[in-house]
Amino acid sequence: PLLALLGVALTLSGCGGDEKKVNDSPAELTSQVISGDWSGHLSVHGITTDFDSQVTVIFDAEALNVRVDGSLTSKLVNFTGPQNFSVILHAGSKRATVHLPSKLPLLLPSCFYKDVEELPPVALLKDLLKDQMKSRKPDGMDGDLRQWVWDLPGNPGVSGHASADLDDGNGFRKGSGTISVDTNETKLDAATTFTSASVQLVKPNSSLFEVPPTWGKCVEAPNSTSVSLGPHADLVAALLLASADPHRRTPSGNSAADFAADA
């Protein structure tokens, strides 16, 4: 009897059997600073590039602002990286600003912006995101991480999927995606993965989402920007949609410890 009781006690405490951890809690908007490796393969109209980048993503869950700093290595035509880049998406001003300090074989200024007029007001967007997140539990577990999987809407000529893995604190740990577009206007295939090296659940300093004077004069992106960028247009778009090792420095010179708001 004593051995039976001991076995029951061990099982209830999680020390017995092979029962895996299950967490079916929905995701929550959470401010965080993430650093990790983002890599992938991109082919547009027969022009192919493989890329790998070290990135730091800063997300403010209150203001819904996003900043990405990184160094990207890619092979495109006769051009090989690495190239530093920064992207700031300021939800309040509905503006995305891109900084490309290194010289690229593209007819673009080193700093340019694009106004995203379609973006809803921050309060409305936040409510929409929260409602969507609350209504969907994880699709399963990837080890100790909750995993969500999405199939792209079934538009003609478009297929693909995406996945995201979050920890118990809603820190973004892993993600992947594929997309294939085959229409009269566009032929594109892409596959990307992101794996975080570390995550800090901190509220970022609001000044990080202001365009620094060191970026120089920023001009409005021409209407042909997506065409001029070629394959890199999709990289920039992916960065804008993205939601830290405390001692790793980004190309902008910051460490993750610098990203936390002043106490």
Automatic annotation (TrEMBL):
<protein>
    <submittedName>
        <fullName>Uncharacterized protein</fullName>
    </submittedName>
</protein>
<feature type="signal peptide">
    <location>
        <begin position="1"/>
        <end position="17"/>
    </location>
</feature>
<keyword id="KW-0732">Signal</keyword>
